[in-house]
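User: Just a sanity check before I run the rest of the batch. Below are the structure tokens for the first item. I only need the designed sequence back.
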């Protein structure tokens, strides 16, 4: 959970980080650059899987855990200490990129070891139930990251939170306390019984990488795990949580606090379902639960996200229909753009409607001094939706996370059962981190890239996860087996 927390606070604070570590002037380019650094951490995860997976199969699961934890926690803490672009220029984003890459490598070595460790301790017939608790940790890590960010944000002003050395750095610093607790717990853990048995018998793999990928039968299992299950699971995980939060904030213009409380409530309600699907997979098999989650997601993503857009939309007709119950003071600003010889005059006013609706109406007039021509643009920003829409959105995000729990809850047991003990750590780590890290981790970046390139369709970013999930569903339905392997001691 702690490593997921470390990994995700970067994504949760992407908008603030983009201001601190990149030059001013183009907020979209800065956010894209930040999401690219965020994605870089995902892209190197398969390399971490190879490096630390090999170590886990050679020296054991326990000590590999400790190493990945120290690397992850140390990198997170140091990101909170990197000065901003205004202080050290281009060195700022380069240092953050370096630390983010270390985070990605460390996480690449973590998951396979954790799943293997728990599965090798689980009694026969309960492997799905036991490993499903691991599956909750990614979402709980996300929940804790959101909660700590909200806690810090609510106790200071926007300017104090967003300052160069402001409150946005606190979640990174808090990480070091969580890591110390986790190191203490891990030092108390014992080695996996199956690995200890292999080691005592002298049967530990000499070259796990070679055995994993040069053996035709095992390599086929690696490819099947990636393209028939993990690839689709990865895009659904990141669409249901990261992309959804980013969409509410940037496309629906919902304010910082409300967009995050929507996510927090939905995560809280949906997280127990990871355990439910893991338990059910021990009874009826893993395959069809995962396939059903993928199918439901690719059929309903566009209607759900279109509802977010339509129900948060504000226009003059809606304001007239509801009626204004409170108007804030109108604020005016004027700025002369010397390079264009134009002036931009902006005015903003907060308005409150019944049922808790609140937003800022922002009007921007551009006066072209050479021609005397004036253009105007009206935006509704910092939207706080009414209570009915608020709970409707929590319900819709809950459905998105329900799909996540269906594809993610049984997958650790599914992967563990595909590979033999002596190369299990290496073999299951690689497809998992390519599927999640590369296919899934690119969802926010590709989604934003598509919507900024093809601006007429705000839902166009969904075609990437829908396409990947559809391909994975077809391959998985045809080639995966629903059989449960009760004996993983081979």
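Assistant: Here's the designed sequence for the first item:
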């Amino acid at each position: 959970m702690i490593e997921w927390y470390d990994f995700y606070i970067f994504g949760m604070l992407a908008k603030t980080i983009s201001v601190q570590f990149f030059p001013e002037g183009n907020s979209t380019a800065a956010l894209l650059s930040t999401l690219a650094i965020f994605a870089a951490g995902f892209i190197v995860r398969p390399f971490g899987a190879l490096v630390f997976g090999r170590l886990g199969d050679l020296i054991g699961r326990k000590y590999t855990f400790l190493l990945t934890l120290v690397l992850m926690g140390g990198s997170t803490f140091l990101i909170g200490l990197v000065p901003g672009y205004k202080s050290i220029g281009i060195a700022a984003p380069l240092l953050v990129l370096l630390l983010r890459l270390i985070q990605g490598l460390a996480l690449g070595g973590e998951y396979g070891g954790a799943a293997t460790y728990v599965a090798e301790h689980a009694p026969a017939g309960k492997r799905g139930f036991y490993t499903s608790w691991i599956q909750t940790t990614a979402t709980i890590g996300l929940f804790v990251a959101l909660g700590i960010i909200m806690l810090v944000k609510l106790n200071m002003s926007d300017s104090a939170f967003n300052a160069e050395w402001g409150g946005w750095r606190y979640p990174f610093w808090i990480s070091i306390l969580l890591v110390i607790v986790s190191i203490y717990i891990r030092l108390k853990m014992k080695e996996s019984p199956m690995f200890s048995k292999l080691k005592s018998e002298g049967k530990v793999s000499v070259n796990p990488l070679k055995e994993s990928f040069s053996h035709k039968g095992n390599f086929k299992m690696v490819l099947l795990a990636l393209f028939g299950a993990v690839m689709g699971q990865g895009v659904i995980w990141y669409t249901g949580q990261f992309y959804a939060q980013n969409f509410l904030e940037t496309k629906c213009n919902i304010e910082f606090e409300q967009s995050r409380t929507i996510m927090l409530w939905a995560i809280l309600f949906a997280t127990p379902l990871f355990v439910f699907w893991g338990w059910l997979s021990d009874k009826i098999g893993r395959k069809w639960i995962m396939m059903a989650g993928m199918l439901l997601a690719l059929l309903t993503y566009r209607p759900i996200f279109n509802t977010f857009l339509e129900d948060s939309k504000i226009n003059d007709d809606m304001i007239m229909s509801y009626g204004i119950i409170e108007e804030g003071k109108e604020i005016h600003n004027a700025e002369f753009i010397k390079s264009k010889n134009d002036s931009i005059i902006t005015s903003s006013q907060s308005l409150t409607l019944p049922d808790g609706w609140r937003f800022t109406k922002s009007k921007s007039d551009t006066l072209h001094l050479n021609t005397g021509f004036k253009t105007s643009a009206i935006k509704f920003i910092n939207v706080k939706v009414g209570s009915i829409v608020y709970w409707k959105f929590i319900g819709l995000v809950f459905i998105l996370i329900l799909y996540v729990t269906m594809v993610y809850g049984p997958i650790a047991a599914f992967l563990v059962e595909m590979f033999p003990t002596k190369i299990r750590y290496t073999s299951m780590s690689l497809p998992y981190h390519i599927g999640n890290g590369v296919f899934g981790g690119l969802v926010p970046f590709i989604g934003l890239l598509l919507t900024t390139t093809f601006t007429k369709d705000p839902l166009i970013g969904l075609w990437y996860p829908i396409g990947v999930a559809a391909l994975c569903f077809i391959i998985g339905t045809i080639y995966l087996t629903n059989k449960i392997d009760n004996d993983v001691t081979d």
